[in-house]
Write a structure and sequence with these properties.
This protein is of the alpha+beta class and 411 residues long. 37% of the residues lie in helices and 29% in strands. The protein has 13 helices and 20 strands. The protein is globular. Keywords: FAD, Flavoprotein, Monooxygenase, Oxidoreductase.
């Protein structure tokens, strides 16, 4: 019979949020287990680049995250950011957003906020690798390459069943197993969700002009297009990660184009802000669906990150909302430990839910509002949004407060 262990806290899902939480909890002194269906060797593997200077669009991972300063500070406190910063990343100092169907435009500048950067674009695999490297030298017990087959609650304790026959006990189980969380389903936490009838196309491009350390986003009726700045290992400023959200039919048309035709569409849509698009990597598309759990907690159980909420990528806030969950849950569990309380204390878990649910719902509502506002073509609506963008761009203090909120800062 296999050894069945009992932990203070079990985290299921070793992605960007679950691994960060496990590291933080271990640092607080909890006995932490981290379960991952994938293999740690895959996460730790250094990509085999054709040229180590990463001079080709295929050398970048298509999926990237725009890490806010608040998220960066969390990762710094976990001892992870140093490894991320030593690898390939791009801190951006500017952000320009405009209405493709009008004249409204707004620009955010790090200098106006008296910070070095508005955020940092990081390839997801670099974040995961840095987190796993930290786990390897921590007290976290990582169980990788194993499937979870069930979750139960018996006599005031949670149990997680594994495909290899083990049944692990924990006072608190945290589900960080992603958008289609099986843990959430097994525990019976329902969600509110709706399909945007859109797909996000992601890829990497090389442009004729430098991105100027600026994130560019153009809105149109059928969805936003973002050019997120990247840097090669030798500092080449002509690469960007593309996130192009389009209505499903239009996304299918774009995905069916050959590379030359697709690059021509990109140039036209971004209005040649960065000159010609000279090269494009393999493209990927995934459907967009907003999902939010009605409750984040149950007895001895909590949801984290995408298992609790998914959001439209138009503002690049998905990873930062997840790291916001990590920060608050770490704060609440630290307080519980100092007071000698169980990590499953109901009042503590309720505070975590209250603090995060309100902020996540506010951001989700704002993103839905933006999508609806820019998705309408009526002349009065177009006039209103373009006038509003121009007006806001001239109001420095108000504009800077909006930017600070998005960065997780207070000014």
């Amino acid at each position: 019979m296999m050894d069945n262990k009992v932990f203070d806290i079990l985290v299921v899902g070793a992605g960007m949020t679950g691994t960060a939480l496990a590291l933080g909890l271990s640092g607080q002194g909890w006995n932490v287990g981290l379960i991952e269906s994938g293999d740690r060797a895959t996460a730790l593997q250094v990509p085999e680049l054709v040229d180590e200077r990463a001079e080709k669009v295929s050398d970048f991972e298509p999926r990237v995250s725009a890490i806010s300063l608040a998220s960066q500070r969390l990762l710094e406190s976990l001892g992870v950011w140093q490894s991320v910063a030593a690898g390939r990343h791009c801190a951006y100092q500017g952000m320009t957003v405009w209405d493709g169907d009008g004249t409204g435009r707004i620009h955010f500048d790090a200098a106006e906020l008296q910070v070095r950067a508005l955020g940092t674009i990081v390839e997801n695999r670099s974040l995961v690798r840095a987190l796993f490297e930290s786990v390897e030298t921590s007290a976290v017990e990582l169980m990788d390459g194993v499937q979870v087959t069930g979750c139960s609650h018996e006599d005031g304790q949670r149990f997680v069943e594994l495909a290899d026959g083990r049944k692990l006990g924990a006072r608190l189980v945290v589900a960080a197993d992603g958008t289609h969380s099986r843990m959430r389903q097994w525990v019976g936490l329902p969600t509110r969700e709706w399909d945007y009838d859109q797909q996000a196309i992601v890829c990497t491009v090389r442009t004729a002009q430098s991105h100027r350390y600026t994130a560019w986003q153009r809105f149109s009726q059928t969805g936003p297009l973002a050019f997120l700045p990247l840097l090669t290992d030798n500092g080449d400023e002509h690469f960007c990660s593309i996130v192009w959200s389009q209505d499903t039919a239009e996304a299918h048309r774009l995905m069916a184009l050959d590379d030359d035709a697709f690059m021509a569409e990109l140039e036209r849509t971004i209005e040649r802000e960065l000159g010609a698009v000279e090269a494009v990597s393999e493209r990927f598309a995934f459907p967009l669906r907003q999902r939010h759990a009605k409750d984040y907690v149950a007895p001895g159980f909590a949801l984290l990150g995408d298992a609790a909420h998914t959001i439209h990528p138009l503002a690049g806030q998905g990873a930062n909302l997840g790291y916001g969950d990590v920060r608050v849950l770490l704060e609440e569990l630290s307080g519980a430990r100092h007071r000698g309380l169980s990590p499953a204390n109901e009042l503590m878990l309720a505070r975590y839910q209250r603090r995060r649910k309100s902020e996540n719902l506010t951001m989700m509502a704002a993103m839905e509002g933006f999508k609806q506002l820019f998705g309408r073509d009526e002349l009065p609506v177009r006039w209103l949004r373009n006038t509003g963008l121009r007006w806001l761009d001239r109001l420095g203090p108000v504009k800077n407060r909006i930017a600070a909120e998005a960065m997780g800062l207070t000014i």
